[in-house]
Amino acid sequence: MKTFDHYDAHSLDEALGLLANRCGKARINAGGTDLLGLLKDGVLPRYPELIVNIKTIPGLGYIEEDGERLRIGALARLCELAGSKLLRERYAVLCEAAGAVAGPQIRNVATVGGNLCQDVRCWYYRYPAHLGGTMECARKGRGPCFAIKGDNRYHAILGGRKCFAVCPSDLAVAFAALGGQMTIVSPRGERKIAVGDFYSPLGNGLADDEIVKEIDVAKAFGPGRQRFLKFTVRKPIDFAIVSVAAVTEEKNGVFANARIAIGGVAPGPFRAEKAEEKLIGKKPSEALAAEAAEAAVEGARPLSKNGWKIEVAKALITRVIGS
Ligand SMILES: Cc1cc2nc3c(=O)[nH]c(=O)nc-3n(C[C@H](O)[C@H](O)[C@H](O)COP(=O)(O)OP(=O)(O)OC[C@H]3O[C@@H](n4cnc5c(N)ncnc54)[C@H](O)[C@@H]3O)c2cc1C
After folding, report:
1. Which pLDDT band holds residue 222 (cuts at 50, 70, 90)?
2. Which domains does the chain have, with CATH numbers?
3. Does 220 have pLDDT greater than 80?
4. Which of 27, 34, 105, 231 to mutate to test the pocket of ligand 1 (most atoms within 8 A of CB)?
5. Which of 3, 248, 267, 286 could bridge across to 258 with cysteines, CB 3.0–4.6 Å?
6. What is the β-pairing status of strands 50-53 and 5-8?
7. Quick check: 223 pLDDT over 80?
8. In 3-state terms, what secondary structure has residue 39?
């Protein structure tokens, strides 16, 4: 690992000042479970001169309901989400998604902000520099996307462009189904962005001088059902090959509301709006769930080796909606 300066920030303003002063040469560290691996393997196109530790900022680890909204501070840890009584009772999809991330050791230190901002897991992008040199790819701004002609079995089937890596965050999928909004701060003030709009094929929507402060969610419509399901290759600790988060509400025996997001298939969580439309006004049944699953993946354009992800996505949606 190359050397870098390290600074413990004690307020958001202090952290923002440090990022602004280093003009793109500083990087935020929260739990460090993603960032430190990237630094060790020399993956990042610009190696940071300064690491700003934000875990020393007090008061950013809350999980609370405030009137009509759930508010989660960027430093809330995944184990806290997974173990939260409030989430289990009212935002189960988020609780289940947090509990499905990695293993207990990582969940004990990883934060919500870090989970949403973590880098992609594409094996070409992450190829360690010490094993024969960095692979310069489209995501690093200087090369092709090697997955297009290479081993793309885990890459995007929807929405890929220039880069076909998928968003690895389980929480992003749950937040997208809940309509979560991120509050991002910078020296220019605060802005909000929907979690579903935060990602693009070449990276997330965060400028060098911005920090995620909070994620908030409007109270889920009525007393409905919420579920998160994830398909992985290895069972105990693994990233999603495909995941599905669904938040539905039934009235008078029919679906009145439905929000479904799919993970592991696109550069960000993919809102399956066509599937949602299929459900509204209809009685839950296995046949309807299968119909919604077909609609969800309409328009998928798999690469040479990942057409099977379409079948996995359909199976998960059928299970989430039908059972
Ligand atoms: C073995 C293993 C298995 C894993 N399995 C899963 C899995 O199944 N599902 C899943 O979702 N994830 C998985 N992960 C990824 C893990 O969840 C993330 O590494 C973790 O959530 C990142 O959180 P952190 O606080 O450690 O982030 P850090 O490593 O500190 O930061 C990650 C990135 O986010 C940036 N960042 C952090 N906080 C902020 C902020 N508030 N504002 C702006 N930028 C910020 C950092 O600069 C860095 O670029 C796994 C990781 C490992 C090592």
Report:
1. low
2. 63-117+167-218 (3.30.465.10), 225-322 (3.30.390.50)
3. no
4. 34
5. 248
6. parallel
7. no
8. helix
